[in-house]
Design a protein that fits this description.
Elements (H helix, E strand, L loop, with lengths): L1 E3 L3 E3 L17 H18 L15 H17 L13
Antiparallel strand pairs: 1-2
Helix pairs in contact: 1-2
C-alpha cells in the first residue's frame, strides 16, 4: 500500500511466490550445498574482530547454525576437515 498527497492510497503487489514448477531445477542436495555455502560465507564476513567472539545457544536450529558456521568457516579457511565442522543436518 502506498500513499501520496497527489494520488491518495494505491495498492500494488510487492512480490509474488513462484508458481510450482517455475523455480530452478536443482536437487535437494544441491540446494543444501548452496545454502550451507551461503551461510558459511556470510558468517566468515562477520568473524573479523579485534576481540574474542562468543555465541550463546538457545537450543534451536538457528542458534545451532550460528555456532556451526564459524567452526565450518574457520576449518575451510585453514583447509581442515575437523569432526566439529561436519554438517549439522546430515
Amino acid at each position: 500500500m502506498e500513499w501520496s498527497a497527489a494520488g491518495g492510497i494505491t495498492t500494488r503487489c510487492y512480490w509474488d511466490l513462484p508458481k510450482i514448477g517455475e523455480g530452478p531445477k536443482i536437487t535437494f542436495e544441491e540446494a543444501l550445498e548452496e545454502t550451507e555455502k551461503r551461510i558459511i560465507d556470510c558468517t566468515r564476513l562477520r568473524l573479523v574482530a579485534d576481540v574474542p567472539i562468543a555465541a550463546l545457544l538457545s537450543g534451536g536450529i538457528d542458534s545451532a547454525l550460528v555456532c556451526w558456521a564459524p567452526v565450518a568457516a574457520e576449518c575451510q579457511r585453514a583447509n581442515l576437515h575437523h569432526e566439529r565442522a561436519r554438517r549439522p543436518f546430515r
